[in-house]
Structures are given as C-alpha cells and as structure tokens.
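Before we proceed, please read the two lines closing this message. Report back on whether the structure tokens fit the sequence:
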Amino acid sequence: MLVLALGLFIGQAISGILLFRAAEQRRDEIAVNQIALRIINAEERAAEQRALQNAFQDVSNASDGRQARRERAFQRRLLRPRANSYSRSETSPIKASEKRVARYERALRETLLDQDIQPQQVAVAVRRAGDDPAIANRPRLQQRLGPGDWAHRQIIVAGVERADGAGWDVVRQPLPKRPEGAIRTIIFQTLVTFVILFALLFLLLRRITRPLAALTTRVSDFSENPDKAIQLEERGPEDMRRLIAAHNAMETRIAALLDEKDVMLGAIGHDLKTPLAALRVRIESVSDPDQRARMAQGIEDITRTLDDILELARIGRPSEATEPTDLAALLASLAEEYEDMGTPLKLGELPKIAAPVQPSLLRRAVRNLVDNALRYGKEAHLSLAEGKGHVVIAIEDEGPGIPAQQIAAMLEPFQRGEGSRNRATGGAGLGLTLARAIVLQHKGELLLRNRPEGGLQAEIRLRLA
C-alpha cells in the first residue's frame, strides 16, 4: 500500500505539473492574442482614419468656409485618440534594465506574421503597473486593471517596431490571472483516487494476509510444539489455499516422522540397555577385580553415551513445562551435588533472578559444561549475572582452552579436541552439543571463548521474558 501511495503521488505530481504547464501556456496564448489583436485593430483604425481624413479634405476643398469649419470639427472628434491600452512611441517602451520575456516575443512575432504584419523588432517585458509612467498618468487605464491596488498588478508591456521604421506600436496588457482552484481540484482528485484504490486494495490484501497471518502463527507454534499436527482451513486466493494445503501435508508428515522417531528411540533404548544390564550382571562373576572394573567402566561409558544420544534426539519434543525458576537456587543446588561428590566447584555471585526455563533440562546443560570444565580445567567457577533483558550463566575453568579455529567445531556432535581432549580423557563428544541444543530450545545462546588469563569461558545467555 505504501508503494501504491508513492506511485500515485508521483503520478499525480507529474499530472499536476503537466496541467500547470498547460494552464500557463493557455494564459500566455490569451495574453499574446490580446496584444496582437490590439495592434491589428490599431493598424485598421489608423487606415480608417487616414481614409476619413482624405475624404474630409476633399469635402473641405469643395465646401464654403462655414461648412469646412464644421467638417474639421467633426474630423477632430472622430480622430481624437481613445483612452485605451494602445499607444505610439518613437522609442522602445522596454527599459535596458528590464528582463525581456523571450517566449512572449516569439509568440507575438509568429502571430503578427500570420496576419501579414511584418514587424522589424518585437520587445516584451513584465512590470508592475505602478512602475509604468503611462499608466500612472492615465486614470482610465488604471480602472481597466480592475478593482483593488492597481499599482501592484503585473502588466505585459509589448512594443512592436514597424517595418517602415516609423515608430513603435505599444500595448499594455494586464497579465492574465492563473485559474483559481486548479490545485484544489488536483488534490481532490488525488484524495478520491486514493480512497477508492486503497479501499479495494485493503479488501484484497485483507483476503490474502489473514490466512497468511494464521499460517505464520501456526508455523511458529509448530516449531516450538511439534507433537501435534493441526489442519488449517484453506482460505484466501488459489495460491494461498495451495500453500496452506502444502503446509498441512508437510506438518502431518513431520509429526508422523517425529512419532516414528520416538518409537524408534524407545525401542533402541530398550533393546540396547537390556543387554547392557545383563552384561553388567555377568561381569560380577569375573574373578579378576581389575578386569571386572574395566569391563564395568566400559559398560557405564556405553550406557552414558546412549543416554546422551537419546537425550539429544528428544530435544525439541515437549518433555516438561516451562516455568519461572529461581536460577540462583538452581545453581546453588547443583553446586551442593558436586560438593557432596567431593568435586571442587567455586561459586561466584548468584543474585536472585527468575527466568522462564525447563529446570531439569537447564540443569543438564549446566552440568555438562561444569563437567567439561572440571575434566579439562581441574577447577570450575560458576557465576550468574543479569544483563539488559537477559541473564548470563558463566562457567570458567583454568585449562588449556580451545584453539579459536576449533571452537565452532567443538559444538558439533562427536567432536573432541586434540591433546588432553581425546577419547581417553574425554567423553563421546556430545556434552557441548547437548548443552547447545538445550539452550537453543530455551531460545538462548551458548558462547565459548578463551579467557585472556588462560582457560575457557562458557556462557549461557537466556532471555528474561
């Protein structure tokens, strides 16, 4: 709608400019035609006066003295100059300091040539009536300028030098006024056009955007809660109905695949954990304690890896409700667990901050990060801080850190670092991946960076609302 408004505005602006230019051209034509008409009429009247003068001269020669005097008196009354805008001058009426109007001069010359009048020179200028001495001394011309302050009216002064060089024909013409209401008419037309087009466009866009908004909301809900497929009503234009139908089919298929995955994961967990439990029982019969301990540790590693894989696969499915949780209390209880196990875990500031989280999943993510810090850094420092609209859970260690070029890769599944981060001392490479997946499910962010003083810092950033 904004694009349409801009297009209409540009179109109306161009239309207004063209109309204004057309009106100005018509005004110029009116002024030039009136000037040319006065010059032509003056030429015709001069010719008539010359003919009458010759006729009266003939009558005067043939008449007696009294009759000749009456004829000359009648001639003076007939040939008396009229109080009009036409006059004769020996010099050009345009001052050297005045700016001449070339378009008027060209148009007036062409008009006179069409009437078989050959001007030697044409000069036209626009001035205030009060600046023209010819009008200042002629009250009848002032009346012709109309009511009001005649001295401030704009007039056209046109001078045409005759071809025989016998002087200048001078015409003073009021500058025609611009037509009133033209701008108002354009604005009114624009408003009417806007109202009609915008009403039709609003109804059309409403028909399109309502089902599109419903589809957008459904896609957002399904991405957060994909456990149940909902069939949207197919509404709107043909393309929109096809899009909704395609989404309904896709959502149904995704929900079916997720259900199949859950069934498969349950079967995998059952089919693998049962033999592992049986092996755990059987190794009790092994007489060598060292061999028995290594076998038990191997089974425990496989079980832990299997739990991590199953937990990672279930991320994104509804497992527990999100609830406002005191993060300081959650981290303090986690620190108590490590203290009971005799593992060093230093606590920093833990201000009382509540955030909507899934407590057990968040505890799992923090525990994975703390385990990594303890495993590779020997000591872990846990703290909580509040930022602008978010909360930061920081876990720091004093280990060797991670090469900067490998930090992004370490968040991928089954990725382990070099050196101390190998299979002998590390896990299956799922701890950081699982922690990141849990944080992303909370619409948060997991950041890893090397500390300047040495060691690695992991930050969990969660939104407070």
Notes: The radius of gyration is 50 Å. The chain has twelve helices and eleven strands. Residues 2-62 form the longest helix (61 residues). The first strand starts at residue 86 and ends at 89.
